[in-house]
Amino acid sequence: MSRTLAALALCLTAAATLPASTAQAHGPGGGAHRRPVAAVAAPTVRVMIEAPEGGAFASVEHRGAMFVAGELGERYAVRLVNDSADRLEVVVSVDGRDVLSGKVGDFKRQRGYVIDPFGEVVIDGFRRSLDHVAAFRFSSVRDSYSARRGTPQHVGVIGVAVFREKAASGWAATRPRAAADARDESSAAPRSKSPRMNKDVGGARGEKLGTEFGESLVSEVIEVPFVRRNQTRPDELHRVVYDSAERLRARGVPIDPVFVHEPWDRGDPSPWPGAVEERQFAPPPPPRRTWR
């Protein structure tokens, strides 16, 4: 039985087969087999990138990924909502670095957060202990945690791997503190830039964004047991790409909302066209026309 962190799972897994998404079948001639297109099920976990006070950053679904417009120096959190009746484990990486261990992301071996049925968890930063995290803040690439650990090529992406739980094994799980209670109490304060980031704002505007290993925040978790249904193959994979709005626009990402300015009385259809009439029942249709 693996150990997990409540609101944090500790599922250490052994190396095995690659996830299904990495495999590709080929026929005798080297071409890929054509398979029937299966219906796409709704995801069980919703991923949101938000400011500490709960406001969301501008985001858009585009080309199979979620794109988020960040701002240099802004603090952010990753909110994960479980829309299923199952307890789930979610392994999260930021800039290619696991948010619990700080090592290069590998969902096959690394642990994650445990989310109760129809519950949620908010991840405020890279975990430093069972009681504290280092805040997520948008930074320049050179100041990012990943670059400072030697992997700048992975900066700008957040990954979430979702694992379902194996059939109940008879033990009683220790319940974590509610996600909202486990967050830093100061998180409701207005957004502010860290002093070190303020001096970089002018020169880095247009540079690619990363995530720094920010100030220490209180974020308490406990360990609970969790056994994955499949140790190495996630049931869902989510990918979030973030950068400045300017750079996302340059990449052709439609990050800006589209507003249609048309007056209401300009030929718009009425939802209640018969409201002025006092019919009690539906009348018969007009007589059928005879065509010659």
What does this structure look like?
The structure is a single chain. With 292 residues, the protein is mainly beta. It has one domain. The strands form two sheets. Strands 1, 3, 4, 6, 7, 8, 12, 14 and 15 form a nine-stranded mixed sheet that branches. Strands 2, 5, 9, 10, 11 and 13 form a six-stranded antiparallel sheet that branches. Strand 10 and strand 11 form a beta hairpin. It is globular, with a radius of gyration of 24 Å. About 23% of the residues have low confidence.
Short recap of the structure:
The chain has 292 residues and is mainly beta.
Parts with pLDDT < 50 across at least 5 consecutive residues:
9-40, 169-176, 178-205
Q: Strand-and-helix sequence, N→C? A: EEEEEEEEEEEHEHHHEEEH
First-to-last CA distance:
81 Å
Structural class: mainly beta
| Shape type | globular
- Portion of residues in beta strands equals 25-35%
Mean pLDDT: 74
Q: Biggest β-sheet: count, sense, barrel?
A: 9 strands, mixed
Number of strands: 15
Work out the radius of gyration: 24 Å
Question: How many domains?
Answer: 1
Number of helices: 5
Approximate helicity band: under 10%
Oligomer: single chain
Question: Any key phrases for this structure?
Answer:
292 residues, 5 helices, nine-stranded mixed β-sheet, 8% helix, mainly beta
Topology at a glance:
Blueprint: E1 3-6, E2 45-50, E3 59-62, E4 65-70, E5 75-82, E6 88-94, E7 97-98, E8 113-115, E9 120-123, E10 125-127, E11 132-140, H1 145-148, E12 157-164, H2 179-182, H3 195-198, H4 201-204, E13 209-218, E14 222-225, E15 236-244, H5 245-250
Parallel strand pairs: 1-8, 4-15
Antiparallel strand pairs: 1-14, 2-5, 3-4, 5-9, 5-11, 6-7, 6-8, 6-12, 10-11, 11-13, 12-15
